[in-house]
Amino acid sequence: MKILYATSEAHPFAMSGGLADVAGALPKALRKRLVGCRVVLPLYESVPQELREKMQFVTSITVPVAWRRQYCGIFEVHHEGVIYYLLDNQYYFKRKGMYGHYDDAERFAFFSRAVLEMIPVIGFTPDIIHCNDWQTALIPVYLNLFYRGSELHHNIKTVFTIHNIQYQGKYGYELVNDVIGIPEQLADVVDYDKCVNYMKGAIECSDRITTVSSTYSREILDPWFSYGLDGILRDHQDKLCGIVNGIDTDIYNPQTDQMIFENYSSEDFTKKSVNKQELQKLMGLPQRSDVPIIGIVSRLVSQKGLDLVKYVFEQLVSQDVQFVILGSGEWQFETFFHSMSLSHPEKVAFRIGFVPDLAHKIYAGADMFLMPSKSEPCGLSQMVALVYGTIPIVRETGGLGDTISDSGDGVGNGFTFKSYNANDMAYAIQRALEGFKNKEGWNILVKRAMECDNSWGKSANAYIRLYKQVLGK
Fold this sequence. Notes:
The protein folds into 2 domains: 2-246 and 457-470, Glycogen Phosphorylase B (Rossmann fold); 272-453, Glycogen Phosphorylase B (Rossmann fold, 3-Layer(aba) Sandwich), CATH 3.40.50.2000. Helix content is 38%, strand content 20%. It has 19 helices and 18 strands. The strands form 3 sheets. A 9-stranded mixed sheet has the order 3-4-5-2-1-6-7-11-12, with helices on both faces. A hairpin with a 2-residue loop joins strand 4 and strand 5 (82-88).
């Protein structure tokens, strides 16, 4: 079984979010299970030089982009047992930043077409092309419209994964002919609500559609979560399923992590207290073992539930608790947490930006991890927190509900709340603070959290079963 994993980013080549983590870890897990999985992504300007030096030039081709043809250089690199193809076109990809350019519609139409055009020259004909998010959504569309007559492409199947349905690749209908290159008489496949919608095209044309958690696969059938695509998803519900992401335990492992102050394991996590003390020292907080630390590592945007945090924050810091917050995003949240760190310097520490080294230290040094998202397709942070014995406090939505269960029943691994309500969140936090006071019970909970299996192995096995279904095996 041969899989070509098409993605707009992948760790460690190009990273902006959770998709890069998935694209860096899942193919590696599939390879360990003897699945022939290779990855293809654009060759961005930001690809690190040490990785560029390992790349080998394969060949160059020209790729049709509507009425014109564009150069595409194909480079190959082997990394951690996986073969990666990086597709070069300096006009499209030699730029600052991966997304947010005026011509993203054309850039990723080129990339989607290039993935299909490169197959005859790389010596690898996949059984399945696994596409991810709107940037690769035109691959199954182009495959069905233009390539089924090719002997190499005729039997290729497609799987399309929705990582976040909010971002669909919506553009003006005038792009259909001149940029996307689909004749008017065939354009209904990407026509949705009088716009071009890349994701809608993939939903129509893919053999299977997946999301990154079981709960999210059900939620996006509801207009509140679907950003307008619930109708087309209900029409294709028979090919929709959810597989929760895993985490890369080579990167997130308290026994081997070189970014944390002291290593520890689920068998002996006494050194977690050293990480807590050193985190307090690093962040300028009073070094007290008896005060619970609540960590937040997040994009600072409303979708992450930070308006709930903001609403009750003064109430929360009136208690004997410390907050360590790392992130960047919307101005209102950056300025709010900064002002709270100035008003409550003994209780609140805030660092703006994303600093992986500090993120690891927060995962290891905090007692609890707050993630009250409005919606969360999967979420990785809550699973990372579990590995480090930092107890998640989450809202039951998407992957948060699939991976975290309330410990009130004596078998759960965190604290949860259902309604998107600040007082409900505050009550969940209060229950966690009360639980922290019972040291014996808290240690049992920490051990239970650390022993949860959220590795990619389980998720990779689920994908292998899906691939076999798609191929009729």
